[in-house]
Amino acid sequence: MIALPAPPHSREALDAVTAAQWQALFSARAEALAHWLQAAAALEDPQAQTLFGQLLLDGRGIAPDAARAFGCFVRAADRGWPMAMNMRARCLEHGWGTPSDPPQAAHWYLQAAQAGLDWGMYNYANFLSSGRVLEQNHALALEWYRKAAALGHAKSLNLVGRYYEDGIVVEADRATAFRYYRASAEGGDFRGQYSYACMLAERGRIDDANYWLEKIADTATAAFMKKIGNELQLSGHPSFRQIGDRMLQLAASR
């Protein structure tokens, strides 16, 4: 068993932490991880600041403090850390620890996207596709979703599939949509799992569809399970109705 490293008090001590020690830290109690990351973040390490900010935002291992979390993300983003750019944008979009400022959120999502972060690409594309903050531009949104999908981003894979299924700025191509949905489902996205299950059902592969519908409950939000559960209850397939009943029960308990 690898012993946890002592909280670092210098840059040299932080740089000396091995991969095995990092793994041990992330397997430790949340309180121990938060204490360690707080010390590392104080050394102005952008990765530690981002990770500590996430713990502060979630209240995991430390009392929740959204304003302090936002400060961590700002400092790390200013040092060029892509995930910190994305989290800075998330805070600005939702008003976590700072006044809501969607245009600034769009700016930082773009910075994260241009730095090569799949989550930044996905979030920026969401702004483009919805037209909520930026002028709606499906062609550019699809371009960013494609880039994130090429990195294996499961949620983006599902949305590229949706563009092909619905024929938005591309010619409708259900075979291509099917391939993207399968990749999204296998990547663990619950919306991709539902999209894939629906197409499997269209092909008469009911047992396979049942498998992916059952997987949805592992990661889906209560709101999504309630929506899909109600839809499945209207299905002509008894197994789908049964899965829908279980989804609604699970949604009510979360």
CATH class of the largest domain: Mainly Alpha
Strand fraction equals under 5%
Quaternary structure: single chain
Q: Quick one: biggest sheet?
A: none
Radius of gyration: 21 Å
Query: Low-confidence stretches at least 5 residues in length (pLDDT < 50)?
Result: none
In short:
The protein has 254 residues and is an all-alpha fold. The protein has 15 helices and no strands. The chain is globular.
Descriptive terms for the model:
mainly alpha; Serine Threonine Protein Phosphatase 5, Tetratricopeptide repeat
Topology:
Elements: H1 11-15, H2 19-27, H3 30-41, H4 46-58, H5 66-78, H6 82-94, H7 102-114, H8 118-130, H9 138-150, H10 154-166, H11 174-186, H12 190-202, H13 206-216, H14 222-232, H15 238-253
Helix pairs in contact: 3-4, 4-5, 5-6, 6-7, 7-8, 8-9, 9-10, 10-11, 11-12, 12-13, 14-15
Explain the overall architecture.
With 254 residues, this protein is an all-alpha fold. The protein folds into 2 domains: 1-151, Alpha Horseshoe (Serine Threonine Protein Phosphatase 5, Tetratricopeptide repeat), CATH 1.25.40.10; 153-254, Serine Threonine Protein Phosphatase 5, Tetratricopeptide repeat, CATH 1.25.40. The protein has helices spanning 11-15, 19-27, 30-41, 46-58, 66-78, 82-94, 102-114, 118-130, 138-150, 154-166, 174-186, 190-202, 206-216, 222-232, 238-253. The longest helix has 16 residues, at 238-253.
